[in-house]
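To: structure desk
From: M.T.
Subject: fold request, one chain
Message: Could you run this one when you get a chance? Sequence is below, nothing fancy, just the single chain.
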Amino acid sequence: VVNSSLFSTSLDRNVSMSFLKHTPVSGRIDRVLLEIEIDIGKYSYTHPFADISHLSDIPNESEILFMMGIP
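Reply: Done. Structure tokens follow.
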């Protein structure tokens, strides 16, 4: 998996599984579920993630926007 920008995820595993099930598989494209653990204390000054649930078009999605490439 390669991602050098932002990606959207959910705090709710059921929401993630729903998106995963509705993602088509074709050719060299496959479904991937990533489980991410983050030490929030480590990022007290910089936050490579944001809870954007209040901006989501999908109610109760518990959407988190995550920035990759942050040490």
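Reply (cont.): The mean pLDDT is 81. Let me know if you need anything else for the meeting.
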